[in-house]
Each structure stands twice: as structure tokens, then as C-alpha cells.
Write a structure and sequence with these properties.
The structure holds two protein chains of two kinds. Chain A has five helices and nine strands, in the order βββαβββββααβαα. By secondary structure, chain A is of the alpha+beta class. Chain A has one domain: OB fold (Dihydrolipoamide Acetyltransferase, E2P) (Beta Barrel). In chain A, strand 2 and strand 3 form a beta hairpin. By secondary structure, chain B is an alpha+beta fold. Chain B contains eleven helices and 21 strands. The chains are: A alpha+beta, B alpha+beta.
Chain lengths: 134, 428
């Protein structure tokens, strides 16, 4: 288990309470789960993602991530339409463990509400929240 | 009841090696180490894994009427339990069975090891030492028996996997002699240095050990009992000896998925405070009479089992991919082909070493596995249902998230190594 100080929490993304991350890329937002989540879950063996074209509200469940031990829900950090899903994860779910912010990305979303982004946490605020959890 | 989380002597080692920890049976235990539960599971099939199992409890029962007490309290007939010929238990041999209450419901499962005449060591589950000891004490009725609950006074390490004997070769004194004539469910030595038997098995550094050809993974290996003061030293010595064999430390997640694939029950989950009937473990936990209608001895719970008219059946299942249902909090249900709810899921895990090919399950250890076999794992476990199911029958499991199709089976992970002779395993 990583200590909080060992977690890789980059500055270029924002964080949701359920440990998803969101990164703006042009007018799209990329989504995945963060280093804390992948460390807590352990080996990820299966990822269930939505269809391109589906639309979700912020905090709505968009899929599941299955570790050796448990199945966990994934929640939208921002509402919007799914523009792309990372199909590589079908065959290589371990990328979520190995590279949670790059190769292990999950969704590309066309956001439909700018307020959603503002409600996400910066690295500093997310770290404070984690320290409260521990 | 005290509810403070306990630690084994290896707790600091687990934490300093970045294990993901969780409470199990009242102990803060490693779930997996940085190598990950999947790699740990696979390594036990290909090489070997080392597990800290010191959370389990040991009870020593001694005295001229210890045998009589165990005959009364334990389900197996110690006069007729060894091998196909059902020979009596004797020193150096051990046997699996359960403790039942008067209603035929399970208190705990256990392995009884006969150390010598009038002396038995009983291995029960984490946190169960006091309860099983009290249950036996309540049935002493003046018999000449001493019951000594050694909870937290025993260090236990399991080394499991095909390389286990080759690794222990390097750390045992006179290993050829130790390994000679040591089949499955036998043991040698004793952990208490004041005891003459302790001299029969020692590690090279002099630590006396009870070494047992048993385990909870379905794979070839050993359970090692030492006094707790020697636990860390023993653990590190075996890990060092295992470096050449890619031995890795393994946590409870891999232990759980390995045992489920081997169709072994988890006490208080697959067997528990409900009648011990119609399950995959009856024939190795009970001693049936020749005609199968009764038992070869009387024991607590026997009448209840004989007169049981409850329709409850526990079956093993295997799925079609590695997706699981969450079996607990909230419960997951079993649905028949018409969608009727017929029971509950007891265990659902993924055995990461198996996969289906042409309607058959193969393991990465199967000698006849298909070319380029690279399985992603199958979900498997146990269900308890209201009507009897037959092997190959398909049912659905449903949790609050998904439904998955699974097949009722007699066995799950094929080609397990637990019973292979040591001689063979020294050559792998």
C-alpha cells in the first residue's frame, strides 16, 4: 500500500471524491482513475466501459472496474457525451495499474456543464481529503 | 468481546514491504504485496509462494482420554480415517474434519494432527481457538484431558507451490531424511524444543519445526509451525533460500482465489452456522458407515445430520470469464433458467490461472493445455441452493450490478499438485 506521500498525483488533472481524474484536452475531457484508486484496488483484471455516444450526468455510474478482490463502480467526474473509450483496456486492463494517467485512460467526454469542472478538486484539496480518510 | 485488531509477529515486515493490509479474522493481514494478487496466485502454480498464516489458531489436546474427547467433538472417526483403507490415525498423520454443534451446524473446520499417543495438535481458523477450546472443554465431563489454547503462541508459515520442497531442502537439517516417506497429510517434528520430537526436524539454524504436508491452496507444499519468537527469522531464511526459485510472499487474496479453485471451503463463509449436509466436503469431513446411511462412530451433531430433512445444497461453480458478482453486503442470488431465485452465493472469486477451451477448463499447469494458452481467469466459488443441482447445469448469479451465467461443477482448477509425491517435486 502506498503512503500518501508516495502517490503520483499530477497537477494537470482535477480529482473527484471517488478517485477519478479529469484532464481538459482542447474542448474534450479525458477521464480515468487515479493512483490512489489503482493502489487500493490492486490488480485490475477487467474494465467495463460505456458505449460511445452515451450521455451521463456528473456522478452517474459509467462502468465498473474489477480487481482480483472486488468490483467497484466508476462515476463521471463531469457530465457529458462519451466521445471515445479506451478499447485497449479490454485486452490489457493492467494498464490502469501501470499507467493510470496515460495508457490507462478510460473515457473522452464532451462536457455539457462547465460547473462540473469547477466542482472538482485540485491536487492540494484532494490530498487534504485523502489525509482525512486515512 | 475484545475487538482490538491483532497483529502477527510478521506485521511490521508486511507493512515495510508495502503490503496492502486488511483485517481478517480479527488480524491485520496482508491482502497482497506489490507483485499483486494475480502474480501471487500464478506463482503458486508455477514456482512457490510464502504465506504468513500465524493468524490461525492452534489448540493442543493431551491426556489419556484425549482420543475419546476428539471422537466425541470432531466429525472424523480417528479409528478409521487414513487413506482409502480408512486406517486409524497414528502419530505423524493428520486429518481434516469439522466441529459441529448438537444441531449439526458448523462451529469451525480443523486439521487434527496426532503428535504421539495421547497428544494431538488441532489447527483451527483465525480467532476460533477460544471458541473451539471452550466447546471441547464443555464436553470433557471428567475425562482425563488437558486443553491448551495456543492462540497467538504459534508462528505458522505456508510454503506452497511446486518448488516448495526444493526451497526447503536448502534450509532443513538432513532434508533427505525429513522428506523420506512424507506423503500428503503427514507431518514430522515438533515446534517445542523441550519435546523429544523437536529433534526430528530442525532448520539449519537449529530452530525446531513441525513440518506438515498440508496447505490451503490445492498445490504441493508445506505448512510450517514454529514458536512465534522464531517466526521472522524463519520467514526471512526461507525467502532468501527461495530467491533462486522466484519464491514470492503472497497475501490472503491469492490464498482465497487458490483455495476456491481447489474447491476448499472457507469456514464461516462456505460452511458455517447451518447444517453440514449436501456439500462437496461431506466425504472428507465425515466418516460414513459402509452402507452410507450412518457413521462409523457417534459424535456431537451426528443425530441431527441423520435426521435432517432440510433442502439445502452447496455446489461449486465455474463461470465463463473472470467477471464476478459481489457475494456479500448485499447478498448475491442464484437464479434458475426460469429466473426464479433458488439460493445465495457463498463465495465468488476469480481463479486467475484457468480458462475455458472447447468446453473444458484448463489451468496453466495442465500438461495437455492448448497451444498459446494464456487464460485471463474464470470466476468460481460456491452457491447454496434450495434444490439439488447437477454438474453441467447452468444457473445465473445476480448481484445489485450484474447477472452472470455459471456452470455447476464437481471440480474447478484441474491438474493441482497437492498430492504429488515429494520425490517427483524435487525434480521439477
Amino acid at each position: 500500500m502506498k503512503e500518501i506521500s508516495e502517490l503520483n498525483l499530477p497537477d494537470d488533472v482535477r480529482y473527484a471524491e471517488d478517485h477519478e481524474w479529469a484532464r481538459p484536452e482542447g474542448d474534450k475531457v479525458k477521464v480515468g482513475i487515479n493512483d490512489y484508486a489503482q493502489d487500493q484496488l490492486g490488480d485490475i483484471v477487467f474494465v467495463e466501459l460505456p458505449q460511445v455516444g452515451d450521455t451521463f450526468k456528473k456522478d452517474e455510474e459509467f462502468g465498473t472496474v474489477e480487481s482480483v478482490k472486488a468490483v467497484s463502480e466508476l462515476y463521471m467526474p463531469v457530465g457529458g457525451e462519451i466521445l471515445a473509450v479506451n478499447t485497449v483496456l479490454e485486452e490489457s486492463p493492467e494498464l490502469v495499474n501501470e499507467s493510470p494517467y496515460k495508457d490507462g485512460w478510460m473515457l473522452e467526454v464532451k462536457p455539457n456543464n462547465p460547473d462540473d469542472w469547477d466542482a472538482l478538486m485540485t491536487r492540494e484539496i484532494y490530498l487534504e481529503m485523502l489525509k482525512g480518510v486515512e | 468481546m475484545q475487538k482490538e485488531t491483532k497483529k502477527t509477529p510478521l506485521h511490521d515486515w508486511h507493512v515495510s514491504h508495502s503490503a496492502n493490509m486488511a483485517v481478517f479474522g480479527g488480524y491485520d493481514m496482508p491482502l497482497w504485496y506489490p507483485s499483486g494478487a494475480k502474480q501471487e496466485h500464478l506463482t503458486v502454480l508455477t514456482n512457490a509462494g510464502i504465506f504468513d498464516t500465524s493468524h490461525m489458531a492452534v489448540i493442543v489436546v493431551s491426556g489419556t482420554e484425549a482420543f475419546e474427547l476428539l471422537q466425541l467433538c470432531f466429525t472424523r472417526d480417528l479409528n478409521a480415517c487414513v487413506g482409502k483403507k480408512r486406517m486409524p490415525l497414528e502419530p505423524g498423520k493428520c486429518v481434516y474434519g469439522v466441529y459441529l454443534n448438537e444441531h449439526g451446524k458448523v462451529i469451525d473446520d480443523a486439521i487434527v494432527c496426532q503428535i504421539e499417543r495421547n497428544l494431538y495438535m488441532i489447527v483451527v481458523n483465525a480467532g476460533m481457538g477460544a471458541e473451539v477450546a471452550q466447546h471441547m472443554a464443555a464436553h470433557v465431563n471428567g475425562k482425563n484431558v488437558k486443553i491448551n489454547d495456543l492462540t497467538d503462541k504459534m508462528g505458522k508459515i505456508d510454503v506452497q507451490g511446486p518448488m516448495a520442497a526444493r526451497i526447503l531442502m536448502k534450509v532443513l537439517t538432513d532434508p533427505e531424511k525429513v522428506f523420506d516417506n512424507m506423503p500428503y497429510f503427514t507431518f514430522k517434528g515438533y515446534f517445542d524444543k523441550a519435546f523429544p520430537l523437536a529433534d526430528t526436524v530442525r532448520f539449519v539454524n537449529g530452530i525446531p519445526v513441525l513440518l506438515s504436508r498440508t496447505g490451503y491452496t490445492g498445490e504441493f507444499g508445506f505448512e510450517i509451525f514454529v514458536e512465534p519468537d522464531y517466526l521472522i527469522e524463519t520467514w526471512e531464511m526461507i525467502l532468501t533460500a527461495g530467491e533462486d526459485f522466484d519464491l514470492i510472499s503472497c497475501g490472503l487474496a491469492a490464498r482465497d482465489s487458490l483455495r476456491a479453485g481447489a474447491v476448499l471451503p472457507l469456514s464461516h463463509q462456505d460452511i458455517g452456522p447451518w447444517p453440514f449436509i449436501n456439500n462437496p466436503w461431506l466425504f472428507f469431513a465425515l466418516s460414513f458407515s459402509a452402507d452410507g446411511t450412518g457413521f462409523t462412530k457417534k459424535f456431537i451433531g451426528d443425530e441431527a445430520l441423520k435426521n435432517m430433512d432440510k433442502d439445502e445444497y452447496t455446489h461449486a461453480f465455474a463461470g465463463y470469464d473472470l467477471r464476478k458478482v459481489s457475494a456479500h453486503d448485499p447478498a448475491a442470488y442464484v437464479l434458475d433458467s426460469d429466473g426464479n431465485e433458488i439460493g445465495v452465493v457463498l463465495t465468488c472469486v476469480s481463479d486467475m490461472a484457468i480458462g475455458r477451451h472447447d468446453d473444458r477448463i484448463y489451468s496453466i499447469s495442465s500438461p495437455d493445455k492448448p497451444a498459446n494458452f494464456n487464460p485471463r481467469g474464470l470466476c468460481c466459488g460456491f452457491v447454496k441452493v434450495k434444490s439439488k443441482l447437477t454438474p453441467c447445469q447452468i444457473v445465473e448469479l445476480k448481484d445489485n450490478r450484474r447477472k452472470i451465467k455459471v456452470m455447476i461443477v464437481d471440480d474447478i482448477r484441474p491438474n493441482r499438485t497437492a498430492r504429488r509425491p515429494i520425490k517427483e517435486m524435487l525434480k521439477v
